[in-house]
Amino acid sequence: MFIEQGLKSENKFWKYILGSVIIIFASLLGQIPLLVTLLYETFVNGKPYPSSNEAIMRFFEPNFTLFLIMISFVFIMLGIILVVRYLHHQTILSVTTSRDKVDWNRIVFSFLIWAAFTIVSTLLFYYYNPSDFVINFKPVPFAILALIGIVLIPIQTSSEEYIFRGYLMQGFANLAKNKWFPLLMTSLIFGGMHWYNPEVAKIGPIILVYYIGTGLFLGIITLMDEGMELALGFHAANNLIGALLVTSDWSAFQTHSIFKDISDPSAGLDVILPVVIIYPILLFIFSKKYNWTNWKEKLTGKIQVR
């Protein structure tokens, strides 16, 4: 079983705290290229140093900013691999899936189904509310965005999945000896990590319903499917296709996307609809395709540490 693979008697919870500190340190190291570039522009070229995260996001050309931000996740992924291998003496496969090898068909299926939904829903929003969008497409900047996104965004989304649905899921299971607590805690922390996103300031805390709900959905499909493959595919599609399709002045990333949303941000159907309707439909589709059973035991059952 997936969640039990990290549950060994020598894997005390303090190791997960230490491992999390190491991963945070790796993240800080990954931010050095951004810091060095900011300091260079400030001291050499005389630009005023940005006073907020929002100002940092607008300081450089959007593709260059995206590249600098995404580089930090390469360091995070390396930190995860080192922590799993040398602190917990596990393989990276053991925090990925319970299968003998990673099921790439699952990743691709999840990616395609969410990519298709994202594309169709975006086009429908554009069709019914054309005044809320402007065409933002420029061939060369978009091609560069696509290259950066295809290479680095899956690393970003995968590192987040390995932290929340892999590493911390197993860590909280070791602490609580059940499955509902890891599911709940990773979902709350995942949602809380988005608190400082500019979307929260513009739309309000209600958008945390979407972030926490998404974390809960990803946790459920991980536990039910005994592996992270579906979560990896979904998260990659969500961030990559989103970055390529739509940007706005108030979103976390400014990109050379196809569309730009110029509407006033508000908590509408795009916040509530996925959590209460779309995610349950996806759960139904996944459950039928992969023959999920015994939901109560897999999501709330007790576990034994070996």
Automatic annotation (TrEMBL):
Domain (CAAX prenyl protease 2/Lysostaphin resistance protein A-like) ranges: 144-241
InterPro entries: Rce1/LyrA-like_dom
Keyword Transmembrane helix: yes
Protein name: CAAX prenyl protease 2/Lysostaphin resistance protein A-like domain-containing protein
Annotated TM spans: 16-40, 64-87, 107-128, 140-159, 180-197, 203-223, 230-247, 267-286
Signal peptide stretch: none
Coiled-coil intervals, chain numbering: none
